[in-house]
Amino acid sequence: MANTSSRTLRLLSLLQTHRYWPGPELSERLGVSPRTLRRDVDRLRELGYPVVAHRGVDGGYQLAPGAALPPLVVDDEEAVALAIGLRMAAQGTVAGIEESAVRALTKVVQVMPPRLRRRIDALRSVTVPAAWGAGPTIDADVLTAVAQACRDEERLRFSYRARDGELTARHVEPHRLVSLGRRWYLVAYDLTRHAWRSFRLDRLADPGSTGERFRPRDLPAEDAAAFVRQGINTMPAAYDVEVLVHAPAARVRAAVSRWGTVEEVGEDRCRLLMTVDGLEWPAMLLGAVGADFEIVGPPELTAFVREWGARFLRVTGGAAGV
Amino acid sequence: MANTSSRTLRLLSLLQTHRYWPGPELSERLGVSPRTLRRDVDRLRELGYPVVAHRGVDGGYQLAPGAALPPLVVDDEEAVALAIGLRMAAQGTVAGIEESAVRALTKVVQVMPPRLRRRIDALRSVTVPAAWGAGPTIDADVLTAVAQACRDEERLRFSYRARDGELTARHVEPHRLVSLGRRWYLVAYDLTRHAWRSFRLDRLADPGSTGERFRPRDLPAEDAAAFVRQGINTMPAAYDVEVLVHAPAARVRAAVSRWGTVEEVGEDRCRLLMTVDGLEWPAMLLGAVGADFEIVGPPELTAFVREWGARFLRVTGGAAGV
DNA sequence: GTCATTGAGGTCAAGAACTGGCCGCTAAGG
DNA sequence: CCTTAGCGGCCAGTTCTTGACCTCAATGAC
Fold first, then answer.
1. Domain co-membership, B47 together with B88
2. For residue B185, is it within any domain?
3. What total of structural domains would you count in chain B?
4. Domain end: B13, B38, B63, which one?
5. Which nucleotide minimizes the distance between its C1' and the CA of A4?
6. Could you list the residue range(s) of the whole structural domain that residue A135 is in?
7. How many interchain CB pairs under 8 A, A with B?
8. Chain D, protein-covered positions (CB within 7 A)
9. Are residues A84 and A34 both part of a single domain?
10. Are B226 and B255 in the same domain?
11. Residue A59 in contact with partner chain B when CB distance is under 8 A
12. Nearest residue to D7 via alpha carbon and C1'
């Protein structure tokens, strides 16, 4: 407890929670002489974590950005926030960071005390799925359990709901997680079928690590993502939406925010471009903008919006009967 | 570099990135004898981070959940994911964790190498606001800068857009950040007006820490959140939505997900309850469900939906001309 | 300008901690 | 039965750490 390593860690922690620390206070907190504190600070600097110091009355130490990120010392609440934030990031509203979010999440979850896990579970019910209509939400527990099995090269058992709805028990050697178009896939070697398969994580339940470790096999594909793509014929239908809106570009842009691009066409007219998986979003945005518009494409959107219009008018007792 | 503390940190890092580590490999990576490795592991255990070990062929060490969270050693990509996830968490879709998310975010951002900040900035443009129509998105930079100033008790300068749109330069002693109903407020002592004020973060721009530190004053209120509540008369209009949907509860629930509650009313009928800030959401959900419905309240929703219906039908060339 | 405060860093000697061998032991799996 | 791997005691040599004392350099207040 009175180690040097322990003190280094505590110093790191103190420097992370509060920016400025007067030297005397630090040395007192750590229970060492000021001279030793200076040496500890030097040690941190040698480790690559720059500590800048200010002299004179009211001076003190502070941790500055360095070449590498120092170990993060977080308290319980921060850990919970971290886990939840990472889960949202993993669910994929921001392209390209899902994989690393899951890696980080796995790290955190693995060492998280049970009491914190319970708090996260309690908060889960409050959480909303990341993006509406963008595919099924997957259980964070499933995600982390599978990620951990991949990372640690442990065989995995789970039940899988095939396309026809049939439930089967699986026993696999997990290879890699792939995030593709808002869906998570597990690439694994199926031990009962003796073949490589990819599994959709949202159809996977009750993952349980068996504890058996294995030596990774070679995947018969260039890369895990490529393998998944091979197996997927039915990519989620993507629509390229183009709409002429009879409103100033600024106004549309404010409503659309970052969901799509808005080009100015005229004084009071602009072109809205979006690429979406479902048509609910564009319909909602067009409603929210509150201006007239002309749908350039796709035709499905026209039909979709017309159906909404007819129904909305009908049920609210407006004109345009059935 | 060849320190004991350094080795402890590296060991911690290794144990976090991969679950099982055979002892020999660890000792080789750390450049010490197996005997010393055992002692290092003991050290970690004494620090409160349980390392469980497995004997026998194929044994190894692994980091287990303990009483406290060990310092997290994350790589660059994970740090980026972390920052982005925390930002989403701070923007507030999950109740109650915003404050700790900001605290954690501040910690991370403070020590993050510039190259990572640039990557986050690059990704920001791709990010979507957490919840649509739920209030203005605030800049993450503003949020962290202000949070840091609060934490470090440093005076802060910024420009503030008052309710009437006028821009003023402010100089304050920041006290605390409060997240209230999807909005962030800064409670601070205004140095020019010599009075406590609360500022909406979305109206605050160009925060710059002056570097001057100050001794915290006593806030003339029970608590910062209470102080903000005192000053806010105009709470964001909240609607309690109630709709009878002519569809099975299960189907509606699937569409609504966790945005609201769905009660079964009959075989083919259910009641949808939501509390929302804006009416776009319920309108969209009702559209997406694809069934008829009766709006019980509020009346604004009826008008809102009717307007959408009329416009949608008109612009798509359906019936019900202007 | 003077002065107190605070960080930087050299040196030293005593003491503590660390290290790498060596040992025998237990546990797990082939 | 044998191998591998973790556990921990012991020991001797080495290294590191610590606090004390010192001088110097910034810095801000008076």
1. no
2. yes
3. 3
4. B63
5. D17
6. 78-231
7. 350
8. 3-10, 16-22, 25-29
9. no
10. no
11. no
12. B38
pTM equals: 0.75
Q: What is the pLDDT of residue B261?
A: 75
| Least confident stretch, A109-123, A171-185, B49-63, B90-104 | B90-104
pLDDT tens-place string over residues A260-306: 677 888 888 898 887 776 777 788 878 877 788 888 878 888 888 88
Q: What is the tens place of the pLDDT at every residue in B239-298?
A: 778 888 888 887 777 666 656 677 888 888 898 887 776 777 788 878 877 788 888 878
Q: Is residue B48 part of a domain?
A: yes
Å between A279 CA and nearest CA of chain B: 9
Q: Is residue A25 located within the same domain as residue A117?
A: no
Q: What is the CATH number of the domain that holds B263?
A: 3.30.70
Q: Taking the CA of residue B213 as centre, how many other CA atoms within 13 Å lie in the half-sphere pointing to its CB?
A: 15
> From the CA of A82, how many Å to the nearest CA of chain B?
6
A70 within domain boundaries:
no
Q: Which of A68, A69, A112 is nearest residue B65 as measured by Cβ atoms?
A: A112
Q: Does position A129 have pLDDT exceeding 60, yes or no?
A: no
Q: Does one domain contain both B251 and B223?
A: no
Question: Which of B206, B231, B256 represents a domain boundary (last residue)?
Answer: B231
Query: Looking at the domain assignment, is residue A244 inside a domain?
Result: yes
Domain match, B106 and B168 both: yes
**What residues in chain B have per-residue pLDDT under 70?**
1-2, 92-95, 124-137, 181-182, 232-238, 254-260, 277, 318-322
